[in-house]
């Protein structure tokens, strides 16, 4: 390959032009400066990426490439462009959020829920770096890049049943075929069956050459070296086509998906032994307020046990993030500042509860205001309303209400989808179901309401009290009933929207 070819064509992994504006260019320009020698920078980037891939992955990629194109295409990383770019970027920190990402438009006083969600969705971006991990470490991680099948599934035509295989369809009536020697079992190399003969096949076996149809063993009569069965039998009966599930090159995992156990099965079945994922999002949880005492410690008559921190830490664990317990701090602005300073060096996001409004002891919102990166969101939602959102030393802070019921609702509705995007996931929308109401309620206009609810006898019933101090209702419930902003009068049997806790990942 002529050295001049690099400068003339600006080759990138996958054969894209570095300055073409195509999908491959941005990855190849990474790390190049105005005075950089282009050839050297591209070689450096490609070498860095290749060094992070397993050797057998590169060897496998050379199979079936024409001799003339094989050397150049392989050197440039043809057919594994996404993997090369992911490998080269692994460990690199994404750009930080802007300091004004939580700022609401001027003049907004009460923000409808949908506007608040749209604002968050438009301004959130991933903050976690890439990692390449083996499949046994990929469970619950977020895919950082699309993954394609390296091999078809199934790789060869095979039989779906135990029976006898032969070539072609058979019409009505009785059919007798000579039985070929041997058999085909799962894992055997495909052999060859002479025309007009049948062979014993077992479920999952690759079809021998000359076999495209199978009849069930229960429908066959063995007579010495012959088999007899009744037609009609369609060609292709009881067989699976090669690649009928997945073709080589088909996408099997999309970037932004949190990986499940079935995903691991599909990745493994299609030859993927490792996957590019996002590092786990580290989320710190801090409780604020002089009135709080950790459960198990002595409490005076004027104190309460901290219910939010254990609840939020557990929720984050279920969401797939890495929870970090930041403890609790009293109503002391200097002490809170010190805790936030320490937290900014060890987590990606901070969740606080309490101190998020505008009162004398609401130090979270006051400190974010002093930092010049705070938006006090008054959201038209019940329970909830005050939500302090801002940045502290480049780390996003979600200031949740101190009331446990409001803290849970605001976490599920607002913090959960935002955290998902910060972690590299796609914006999640909880799946709700329209079900008959098992309750009566007169609702005023103006705010969206979330009622603690559960399903019984096909109807949604709600907790006896809507008081946000009734923490027992959170445990009693199995989800939330969502009532939109307009005024409404709900009667038993009317359809309402029920969102199970499971739809939020709990």
Keywords:
single chain; about 500 residues; alpha+beta; Molybdopterin biosynthesis moea protein, domain 2; Molybdopterin biosynthesis moeA protein, domain 3; 5 domains; 6-stranded mixed sheet; 13 helices; elongated
Task: Explain what the structure shows.
- The chain has 506 residues and is α+β, with helices and mostly antiparallel strands.
- It has five domains: 4-89, no CATH class; 130-149 and 247-278, Molybdopterin biosynthesis moea protein, domain 2 (Alpha-Beta Complex), CATH 3.90.105.10; 158-240, Molybdopterin biosynthesis moea protein, domain 3 (Molybdopterin biosynthesis moeA protein, domain 3); 282-422, Molybdenum Cofactor Biosythetic Enzyme, Chain A (3-Layer(aba) Sandwich); 433-504, Beta Barrel (Beta-clip).
- The chain is 25% helix and 27% strand.
- It contains 13 helices and 28 strands.
- Strands 7-4-6-5-9-8 form a six-stranded mixed beta sheet, with no helix packed on it. Strands 16-13-17-21-20-18 form a six-stranded mixed beta sheet, sandwiched between helices.
- Strand 8 and strand 9 (226-233) form a beta hairpin.
- 38% of the residues are buried.
- Catalyzes the insertion of molybdate into adenylated molybdopterin with the concomitant release of AMP.
- Pfam families: MoCF_biosynth, MoeA_C, MoeA_N.
- It is an enzyme of class 2 (transferase).
- It comes from Sulfitobacter porphyrae.
- Pathway: Cofactor biosynthesis; molybdopterin biosynthesis.
